Amino acid sequence: MSGAAAAGGTLAAGTASAAVVQITLPEGNEVTNLGISSALNSLNPDITGDGTDDLESLQIRYGPVNQSATDGFILWNLFVEFSSIYNLAIVGGRRQNTTFGFVTSYSVDLTGPFTGFQSTPQDKVAIVPITFSDSRINGGIETTGFLEVRAFNTSLFESTVRLVRLVFDDASPFRPNSGVVAGGTNREWGEPAPAEIADSAVRTSRLNRQVKKLKKKLKKLRRDGNSQKAKKIKAKIKKAQKRLRGS
Ligand SMILES: [Ca+2]
Asked: Over the stretch 105-126, which tens digit does the pLDDT of each residue have?
């Protein structure tokens, strides 16, 4: 990802947990303003994917705004608000100065008021605290997590705001107070933790060794004509193979 990373929300106190996970949002969950009079809006407010909207206060505004009454700047902007608590302005555009005409100027701001204009397109990512409920997450208790948002200028008149991922603690409804970084990656929700994967690998390896050993034993017993014992070993192999398929 190009552009500077900017933390959109401070990681305030919450409950520490090792169970921080993310839901990677499908590609194309974004809105782009097309010039000054329209927008291509594909923002999906159901970020958990259960069919119920999570961003109830989502507001999108676009078009020319009078940035400053005193110097006459006009800005083509895109403004997205995710909740009534955390207002995020994502702005891009070209300025027009009443005295000097058009000025090539870009700006993206994820945290509030404009921080300035640049001569090149801007690209920023931030994490925004949000609250949501989903019956599959924390038993349906209202959970606070972070929504990662990327905002970038696509041209002089167009900017995009893209929802990237939802990060939360799937063992606590409180927002994680560590382990979440704008532009970072967390374990995908629903996927086993590394410890579980390691456990599974150890179990598989042990069962494989067991099967190999039993097969060797079976071969010897058959050679020796001990069919009764061979039958028992064969059953053991079958059992281990069944466990292998399930591991
Ligand atoms: Ca949802």
From this structure: 666 666 655 566 777 788 888 8
